[in-house]
Each structure stands twice: as C-alpha cells, then as structure tokens.
Amino acid sequence: MEELGLAETIEALREELETAMARAEGRDVRFLVGAAQVEFNVGVRREGGAGGKARFWVLEAAADARYVRETVQKVTLTLEPVGRDGSPVHVRRGSDERP
After folding, report:
1. pLDDT digits (tens, 9 = 90+) for 37-76
2. What span, in angstroms and rounded, lies between the C-alpha atoms of 1 and 60?
3. Domain extent listing, the chain
4. By C-alpha distance, which of 90, 67, 80, 74 is closest to 18?
5. Closest CA to 45 of 78, 12, 65, 68
6. Do β-strands 89-92 and 30-33 pair in parallel, antiparallel, or remain unpaired?
7. Strands 54-58 and 30-33
8. Disulfide-capable partner of 90 in 4, 30, 65, 85 (CB 3.0 to 4.6 Å)?
9. What pLDDT digit, counting tens, does each position of 28-40 carry?
C-alpha cells in the first residue's frame, strides 16, 4: 500500500476547489465556500531514529491491521479557502438547470 502524505491530501483538496472555481466562471449561481472541516485518520512514524522528524500519512478507511492503536491519530483541520487576493472562494452548483 502506498502512503499518501497529509500535504498531498490537502493539495488534492486544493486542486478540487480550484477546478470548481474554474467551472464557476460566468455562471449565474455560485456558492461561497466557508470554513471547510476535514478529518483524517493518520499514521505517525518517526523517520531517521531519535533525531529524525515525524511523518504523517493518511490512512484508508480500511486501514491495515498492522498499525497499532498508539500510532494512529485523528487529525481535524479547519481550512478557510481564499483566493490569491484573500477574497472568499466561490464555486458553482452541480447542475446546469436553473432553479
């Protein structure tokens, strides 16, 4: 099983929001994205011995049984998506039909 880093997971979320923003251009109906709360079960491991740094990776829903309970942590992040200029992020609705 390939480990997916926490930073890679957040980057994938960022890319999905950017795709949604791009699709919102020129649309009549858009949504403001507020705080996005995401929760992960992560594995924690120290790399390089006592002086090494800790590494976090996101566990799949059916996490491998080899991870003992003490090495699995729940991490909850609250992200506030903003554009490059600090303005709120808007995304479009999922349907092309008008309400």
Report:
1. 888 888 877 777 667 777 777 877 555 555 544 466 777 8
2. 10
3. 4-92
4. 90
5. 68
6. antiparallel
7. unpaired
8. 30
9. 877 778 888 888 8
List Cβ neighbours of 32 (8 Å cut-off, separation of 6 or more). 88, 89, 90
User: Do residues 66 and 1 lie in contact, with contact meaning Cβ atoms separated by under 8 Å?
Assistant: no
Least Cα distance to 90 among 36, 34, 16 occurs for 34
Q: Whose structure tokens read 């997916």?
A: 4
Q: Which residues is 31 bridged to in the sheet?
A: 91
Type of residue numbered 35: A
CA count, 13 A, side-chain hemisphere, 39: 3
| 98 φ/ψ angles, rounded to the nearest 5 degrees | -75, 145
Phi, psi of 4 (to 5 degrees): -110, 115
